Amino acid sequence: MKKKILALLVIGVIAASITACGCQSSSTTTDNSTTGSTNNSNVAAAPDYSEKECWCQVPEISKDVDTFFVYPTVYSGKNEGDPDYASLDNAEVKQQVDEVKNFQASVFEESTNVFIPYYRQAGLKRAGEAVKQTGNIDAAISDIPYEDIKAALDYYFTNYNNGRPFILAGHSQGSAIIRYALKNYFKEHPEYYERMVAAYTLGYSITKEDLESNPHMKFATGEDDAGVIISWNTEGTQNVEGKVFNVVVLPNAISINPLNWKLDETYAPASENKGSLKVVDPAAGKADIGDVGADAQINLERGVVVTNANGTPIAITEFFGPQSYHNDDYGFYYNNIKENVAKRIATYKASH
After folding, report:
1. Cβ within 8 Å of residue 191, ≥6 positions away
2. Distance (Å, rounded) from C-alpha 153 to C-alpha 147?
């Protein structure tokens, strides 16, 4: 699969150019010295989510369930002098978010109304600093990115949701923010959390410690339970056998098998795969469903999904190791995810 389409946690797709988008009118100086950030002297103003321009997508309501989708890293921010956090008037960011919408968020569109807010996400340099300091990116996402998503959730629940059940979904940095929101925002808002059908936090680890310290968070145990978290990171045998560093794989990570929906090491052959997303033209949003040999097996020690799929690993090995299929966490198992979304919605509806 072509690698341009899915943005990465610590691999910015391209350096950004700037154009006005109407979502924010000015920049503001923000002091984030307590988070260890190094270049927040010109942090863009916070989004105003009452403005439609601050949303990549506010759908027409045609379903009785929503999805709130947080996109992965589409801002480079890797050079000295680059802002640590993306401005919302960044043309390349908006283009890349559109591609993510087509090739990731689209898996939820058959069953739900998909809402996608823009947010000031952490760039490569900032995320890399956080990982070096603490082993994860919480320090990079817990201030500006999380504050934006928290504000977007507030506006969504007050003005858009209208009491409907909802799915949380994301990838990579987006999933890291959802993980943080599950531990904080939804602990503070149980009245919302009780309507959560599921949270798909693909491409960033949910750990045993996350669940132990947050009893309200439940990991999926099968293919159709509701009110649960669904997560995995996809790797090849080189990463697993070499026990290499992968920035999105945390100690004591948990993954569920996206083909047989088991938590153990039961192997699921590619014959159980109902169709992978094969990208034809990323810029035009064109893709076909096909067979790339994407099988799946959990490695319990590492907490990842291992595959022998015919795919191209991420080239930046210092962040992901020699055989990470981070780009394909959604694409390899696209039709199985789509079917799974419908099953979990059916379970939720049957019990409410």
Report:
1. none
2. 10
pTM for the complete prediction?
A: 0.90
* Lookup: tokens for 210: 């996350």
247 contacts 319 by C-beta, under 8 angstroms: yes
Q: What is the identity of the amino acid at 185?
A: Y
Buried b (16+ CB within 10 A) or exposed e, 263-291: eeeeebebebbebbbebeebeeeebeeee
Distance CA 84, CA 140 (A): 9
* Structure-token match 């959560």, residue found: 196
Q: Please give the radius of gyration of the chain, using alpha carbons only, rounded to the nearest integer.
A: 19
Q: Distance between CA 329 and CA 219 in Å, rounded?
A: 18
Task: State how far the Cα of 186 lies from the Cα of 53, in Å rounded to an integer.
Answer: 26
User: pLDDT in tens for each of the 352 residues of the chain?
Assistant: 433 333 343 333 323 322 334 575 334 434 343 344 445 546 778 999 999 999 999 999 999 999 999 999 888 777 777 888 988 887 778 888 988 999 999 999 999 999 999 999 988 788 888 888 888 889 999 999 999 999 999 999 999 999 999 999 999 999 999 999 999 999 999 999 999 999 999 999 999 999 999 999 999 999 999 999 999 999 999 999 999 999 999 999 999 999 999 999 999 999 999 999 987 677 776 789 999 999 999 999 999 999 999 999 987 788 899 999 999 999 999 999 999 999 999 999 999 9
Question: What token pair was written down for 213?
Answer: 């310290």
Rounded Cα gap, residues 70 and 177, in angstroms? 8
8 Å CB contact between 238 and 44: no
**C-beta neighbour count of 301 within 10 angstroms:** 9
115, β-bridge pairs: 68
Question: Which of 110, 78, 109, 83 has its CA nearest to residue 8?
Answer: 78
Distance (Å, rounded) from C-alpha 192 to C-alpha 153? 10
Count of Cβ atoms closer than 10 Å to residue 296 Cβ: 28
Rounded CA separation 1/12 (Å): 18
Q: CB of 182 within 8 A of CB of 214?
A: yes
Coil, helix or strand at residue 229: strand
